[in-house]
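Write out the bound-state structure for adenosine-5'-diphosphate.
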Amino acid sequence: QDVTTDVVIIGSGGAGLAAAIEARDAGKEVIVVEMMNVVGGNTLRATGGLNAAGTSVQKALGIEDSAELHFEDTMKGGYYKNNEELVRILTSQAADGVEWLISLGADLSNVGRMGGSSQDRTHRPTGGAPVGPHIIQVLRENAQAKGIEIRLETKATEILVKDNKVVGIKVEEKDGKVYNIKADAVIIATGGFGANLELFAQLNPNLDGFGTTNHAGANGSGILMAQAIGAAVIDMEEIQTHPTVVPSNGYMITEAVRGNGAILINRNGERFVNELETRDVVSSAILAQEGKTAFLVFDNTVKESLSAIENYIRMGLTVEGNTIEELAANLGIDPAALSSTVEKYNEFVLTGVDEDFSRGDMPRALKEGSFYAIEVGPAVHHTMGGLLINSQAQVLDTEGKVIPGLYAAGEVTGGIHGANRLGGNALTDLIVFGRIAGKSAGNQ
Ligand code: ADP
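---
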């Protein structure tokens, strides 16, 4: 049974929901389709925060910052490959995005700093609580209160075109039911393709064998559907990875664990790389080991130096032992081998010279029980590339012309983050451009 509405949105992550609310506020009837059985997509996994400069929250905390500085940091972080016009929009409208979320009931009163930012501008809930689930909850409740319909387990499979204009989408429900949703405007907010292992390895063969930190819905279907009707893509090969992700659940272990003294060992109980090398070097070194994963090994002094580790222990990500030998046995590794590796490393710490791998900073010896290990491997985290959009979030075709009726926002788009996305800028992107897409579709 076909359905008709004004605006149909594919994807219920931060970008899709922000777009839905703006389109509804412009007086349109809105349907959101979501292929998974939960609302929120990858946005639910965001823990860092939302970058914005010049907010009321920063002012209240006495933080001096400007959209100009945010712009410069973002361009530098993206190795200047970013689309300047889109970055201008991102950074100049970020503060308004934060005020908008606050007006909808969000708590973004805690401000911190993430890598690549020159000021404290990463906004998150009180106490640094996870920001993604909070923002999704606020947006979902507002969307539902405004009468926006969200259809779960409903997957968009095709974008419908008539007379060179987008006129709706074809969807398939979980039970196999297929129908069309006709609409004057379609907004693609399907997120990235970080969970499409085949696609990212095809785009960048160096990523063959990588896992993912993304939820299963990040499969790139929005990009492929749009390409099928002539949409252009940009920067598809720019893919952000992380070397230390827990293979079983995609949880990212912060680099600070290595920074604060952990070593990486393989199944022979040996070190195999300078742990502080760049992400790509550490990633391929891990993939070259038996089982394509490795263990981050550290002692109680490293644990005490970093509060995040407490959390990893609580989540059950660590294997523990009172001695190095006990830890090795619990990992199924030869205890004598691991013990001699750690002894040798501890001597390097004393002399300050890593004779095996030339690690520069070795902040502490690993000798105080308990000892811990976390299994890790490299994974894809964020896909910078995607659909080519203009300042109104309209999708462009391969000749640079607007595809009438088609909009996109969030991780599905490309060009904003250039060759590298700064921590905290993903949420900014999906709120700022999600709102723009919703307003554009709402006023077309
Ligand atoms: P963003 O951060 O850009 O908002 P998210 O990953 O948070 O992206 O959200 C994108 C959402 O889109 C996910 O919930 C995902 O399951 C959904 N999605 C992806 N492809 C489709 C599709 N073809 N049909 C319906 N929903 C989709």
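---
Residues 10-16, 33-36, 41-43, 155-156, 189-191, 217-218, 221-222, 410-412, 430 surround adenosine-5'-diphosphate (CB under 6 Å).
DSSP finds 14 helices and 22 strands in the chain.
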